[in-house]
Design brief:
The chain contains 6 helices and 11 strands. The chain is of the alpha/beta class. It has a single domain, classed as Spore Coat Polysaccharide Biosynthesis Protein SpsA, Chain A, CATH 3.90.550.10. Strands 5-4-1-6-10-7-11 form a 7-stranded mixed beta sheet, sandwiched between helices. A two-stranded antiparallel ribbon has the order 2-3. A hairpin with a 2-residue loop joins strand 8 and strand 9. The chain is globular and about 50 Å long. The chain starts with a strand and ends with a helix.
């Protein structure tokens, strides 16, 4: 049986580090909002059944985006944290055998080749895109170095992150009930005893976090379109 794949995009954050007059997902790159670029990555993919976008209850921007009115897009209201927003989005997925592909709203530079690699995962522990750490990594106490970490076993977690939807929802709910900190979907799965797979992804799959990231994302988007 062909599994249904739902994309979940938590987009209810304000992106305070961008120092902008609106949430960062609504800033413009190459004539479109960051969120439009991100959602567009999935709308024409033949394996994607639906894209669920979690926005803030007081969001006054999403209604102006025509792309979000597509029949393949469903809007839900997010929560106080990223994990809350993902959980709310998972609540509208009714198919018991569905898989959830969770992707940051501010990662518009994902390449189709990386997405397709991740979608090949069949192991129900799931998996994530990630890049091996290449910089020297320091363990610190505040701003003082304690020691240097062995980077050979360290990876930078990226998105998308891909899991059976029902299993991920249960893992998040369990973490909430125990008061555990969930920084990404993989961490929720890990807290429930799973060991998700790491899929090596491209380093240009950047998350736009600070003002200087906008120029870099525009460069990558231009490069992707030209290839």
């Amino acid at each position: 049986m062909t599994r249904k794949i739902f994309v979940v995009i938590p987009a209810s954050g304000i992106g305070s580090r961008m120092q902008a007059d609106k949430p960062k997902q609504y800033l413009k790159l190459k004539g479109k909002t960051i969120l439009e670029h991100t959602v567009s990555l999935f709308l024409d993919h033949p394996k994607i059944a639906k894209v669920v976008v979690a926005v803030a209850k007081d969001d006054s921007f999403y209604t102006e985006i025509a792309l979000l009115k597509s029949d393949k897009v469903q809007i839900v209201f997010g929560g106080e944290t990223r994990a809350d927003s993902v959980f709310n989005a998972l609540n509208v997925i009714e198919d018991e055998n569905a898989w959830a592909l969770v992707h940051d709203a501010a990662r518009p530079c994902l390449k189709r080749s990386d997405l397709d690699k991740l979608l090949q995962i069949k192991d129900e522990q799931g998996g994530i895109l990630a890049t091996p750490a290449i910089d020297t990594m320091k363990r610190a106490n505040g701003t003082q170095i304690l020691h240097t970490e062995d980077r050979s076993t360290l990876w930078h977690a990226l998105t998308p992150q891909f899991f059976p939807a029902k299993r991920l929802k249960t893992a998040l709910e369990t973490a909430f009930n125990k008061g555990q900190i969930v920084t990404d979907e993989a961490s929720a799965m890990e807290l429930s005893g799973y060991q998700p797979q790491l899929i090596a992804g491209r380093s240009d799959n950047i998350k736009i976090t600070r003002p200087e990231d906008l120029a870099l994302a525009e460069f990558y988007l231009t490069h992707h379109l030209e290839k």
